[in-house]
């Protein structure tokens, strides 16, 4: 696994990171983080950078956990839908087989009826 070095600036402080992600991606993350922290600080008087960073981090963690929970719920729903589809497919196959049996039975009855009809004409 190769690492990329990415230099980013968050709240005026430069950081050099080693990451498997592209430097451009990491720079974009840092830019978004910088904006969130600065917005939080601008909307709250007398707040320290550390407090703003912690509050933003808590908000991001909350978003992440809720998103993961939503993803888990979607996975559960998809699994349920797949199981329902499999059950429906089996039921459809069973009904098709029954239909084919009935069609063969009808064909046999028609043949028997034709044979009876011919016998009656001959008698």
How much strand?
5-15%
Low-confidence region ranges: none
Describe the main β-sheet briefly. 2 strands, antiparallel
Cα gyration radius (Å)? 35 Å
- For the biggest β-sheet, the strand order reads 1-2
Give a structural overview:
The protein has 123 residues and is mainly α. Helices cover 77% and strands 11% of the residues. It contains 2 helices and 2 strands; from the N terminus they run E-E-H-H. The protein has helices at residues 23-43, 49-122; strands at 4-10, 13-19. Strands 1-2 form a two-stranded antiparallel ribbon. Helix 1 (23-43) crosses helix 2. The protein is rod-shaped. It starts with a strand and ends with a helix.
Summarize the topology.
Layout: E1 4-10, E2 13-19, H1 23-43, H2 49-122
Antiparallel strand pairs: 1-2
Keywords:
single chain; 123 residues; mainly alpha; two-stranded antiparallel sheet; 77% helix; 11% strand
Give me a quick take on this structure.
The chain has 123 residues and is mainly alpha-helical.
């Amino acid at each position: 696994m190769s690492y990329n070095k990415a230099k980013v600036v968050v709240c005026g402080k430069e950081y050099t990171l080693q990451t498997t992600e592209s430097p451009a991606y990491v720079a974009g993350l840092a830019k978004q983080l910088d904006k969130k922290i600065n917005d939080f600080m601008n909307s709250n008087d007398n707040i320290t950078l550390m407090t703003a960073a912690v509050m933003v981090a808590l908000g991001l963690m909350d978003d992440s956990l809720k998103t993961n929970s939503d993803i888990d719920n979607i996975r559960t729903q998809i699994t349920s839908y797949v199981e329902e589809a499999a059950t429906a497919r089996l039921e459809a196959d069973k009904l098709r087989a029954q239909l084919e049996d009935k069609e063969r039975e009808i064909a046999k009855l028609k043949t028997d009826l034709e044979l009876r009809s011919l016998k009656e004409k001959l008698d």
